[in-house]
Design a protein that fits this description.
The complex is a heterodimer of chains A (191) and B (282).
Chain A: H1 5-43, H2 46-52, H3 70-74, H4 84-91, E1 94-101, E2 104-110, H5 114-119, E3 122-123, E4 126-130, H6 131-137, H7 142-155, H8 161-166, H9 176-188
Chain B: H1 5-25, E1 28-37, E2 48-51, E3 71-74, E4 77-80, E5 85-88, E6 93-96, E7 105-112, E8 115-118, H2 123-129, E9 133-134, E10 152-153, E11 155-169, E12 173-186, H3 189-200, E13 206-207, H4 230-236, E14 243-252, H5 255-258, E15 266-278
Parallel strand pairs in B: 8-11, 9-10
Antiparallel strand pairs in B: 1-2, 1-7, 2-6, 3-4, 3-7, 5-6, 11-12, 12-15, 13-14, 14-15
Classes of the chains: A mainly alpha (191), B alpha+beta (282).
């Protein structure tokens, strides 16, 4: 037996409303798993790990050819927490109900863009430049030298040539843009 | 090696940058002054150098109100450019032959507010390591010549950082992305803010694609054809595929970092991403 068309239409119109809550619940679970995976991937990235190890870390990411470490190279102060603003942005990733579609509902993912992350990661010595973007496009050793110069001017020492050499080998690496692109695609596939 | 894409990009960017700063910012001052004879052992023995107090004069006659000299006054008589009188715009001087060392020489010219240089030096070398001669654009009563060849401040150092091709269209067309950088060393915050503001607004500007041969200056720093106009140069090469500025980021060295520098300069940075669509494998 087939239901009359007007009845079918009324039922179809009610489906999204009835499905929103169970769909949202199911999505929430998958979303949180993926979000955690994204944050873990960020924290376990060689660049993040080296920076979070602070000024005494070794150059485990290899971006300085094994010399020195990124934290000092970029010129952060000892008590700086450079990863914190990125982590806050990633943790703010969320989703919201954004309307009905045929026989279902639609949710939008709110994920920071790479540009938004670059805006909250200023170089310690030039606020308009992003260190996170610099990891991808290149960073000069300026922060390192400025800190060294400031320290040496107090102690009256000159910049040592061996130290100078170690700060000249920055090798660009993929970092935030690739992570955000990857998870933008993965979040879009959530069903 | 024949001219490559990167060479054209560099030439084109340098000429565009100079014109944009002078045109948008009117970043020059008109000067009239004495020239001083000095010894220069790098120079051909036929010529004696007579230097003004300022380096890098404006060469571009498309800049409104700029005075681009075509000669100087020697003992009160105007002597135009010739084989015996070369105008070295780069070093702010004239090279004359057959003129007494003590001959009084005067001239009028426009001086750029910023010397513009192309460099391979890193930012740390430019900012931390180097010591600069200040060639202030404010006239002083005990005026003398400025030594040739050395780079002086206020200055802007341009460099090309990296180049990358990304696919753009079927058939093998790529977008070539070039990162160009500028380090600005200014005498005061006003100058620095001015330059950063001018170039922050250069987003989406087109840059005329000029080959090496289009560069207007000779090895002596004079103009190849006696005059140069960037506006005319653009018309000449209008059919070449332009570059465009996809993004530009302006930033300043923080005051805390600046105070560690001994020469008390105001330092800023411009990071350009320049694109051109092209068939890179043809």
């Amino acid at each position: 037996m087939q239901l009359p068309k007007d009845v079918q239409k009324i039922i179809n119109a009610q489906i999204p409303k009835l499905l929103r809550v169970p769909f949202e619940k199911a999505l929430q679970e998958k979303f949180e798993t993926l979000k955690k995976q994204m944050i873990d991937e960020f924290l376990n990235h060689p660049i993040s790990k080296e920076i979070s190890d602070g000024p005494t870390a070794s150059n485990s990411s290899g971006c300085l050819g094994g010399y020195g470490n990124l934290f000092s190279f970029i010129g952060f102060e000892e008590d700086d927490e450079p990863l914190k603003p990125i982590l806050e942005q990633l943790q703010a990733t969320n989703f919201k109900y954004s309307g009905e579609i045929a026989s279902g509902v639609k949710f939008s993912i709110i994920l920071p863009t790479a540009k938004e992350i670059f805006e909250v990661t200023p170089m310690p010595w030039a606020s308009g430049r992003s260190w996170a973007q610099g990891i991808e496009s290149g960073i000069s050793g300026l922060g390192f030298y400025l800190k060294l110069k400031s320290k040496n001017s107090r102690s009256g020492e000159a910049i040592q040539t061996s130290v100078k050499g170690s700060a000249r080998r920055f090798k660009n690496q993929q970092y935030i843009s690739v992570l955000i692109n990857k998870y933008t695609n993965l979040f879009a596939q959530l069903k | 090696m024949i001219e490559q894409f990167q060479h054209r990009a560099t030439t084109s960017f340098l000429l565009w940058f100079d014109n944009f700063l002078l045109r948008k910012g009117e970043a020059f001052s008109n000067q009239t002054g004495k020239f001083f004879n000095y010894a220069d052992d790098r120079l051909d023995s036929r010529y004696k150098p007579y230097g003004s107090a300022y380096k890098q004069w404006v060469t571009d006659s498309s800049i409104p109100n700029a005075v681009v000299p075509s000669g100087v006054h020697i003992s009160g008589t105007f002597v135009p450019r010739s084989n015996s009188l070369i105008i070295d715009f780069e070093n702010g001087r004239v090279l004359a032959s057959g003129v007494a060392a003590s001959a009084p020489i005067t001239g009028s010219f426009s001086v750029k507010d910023f010397n513009v240089y192309f460099t391979n030096d890193s930012e740390d070398d430019l900012i931390v390591e180097r010591k600069y001669i200040q060639n202030s654009r404010i006239s002083s009563p005990d005026e003398s010549y400025i030594s040739p060849y050395d780079q002086v401040v206020p200055a802007i150092f341009l460099s090309s950082d990296s180049m990358k091709n990304d696919g753009f269209a079927f058939g093998g067309m790529d977008t070539t992305k070039i990162n160009m950088k500028a380090v600005i060393l200014a005498e005061n915050a006003y100058q620095l803010d001015g330059v950063l503001s001018i170039f922050a607004d250069s987003y989406n500007e087109n840059i005329c694609n000029v080959p090496f041969s289009g560069h207007p200056q000779t090895e002596y720093g004079d103009l190849k054809n006696g005059s140069y106009s960037y506006a005319n140069l653009k018309s000449t090469y209008a059919s070449n595929t332009s570059f465009f500025i996809n993004s530009v980021n302006a930033s300043k060295l923080t005051d805390k970092a600046r105070t560690t520098l001994t020469d008390n300069l105001y330092v800023g940075f411009l990071d350009f991403e320049i694109h051109q669509q092209r068939y890179s494998r043809q």
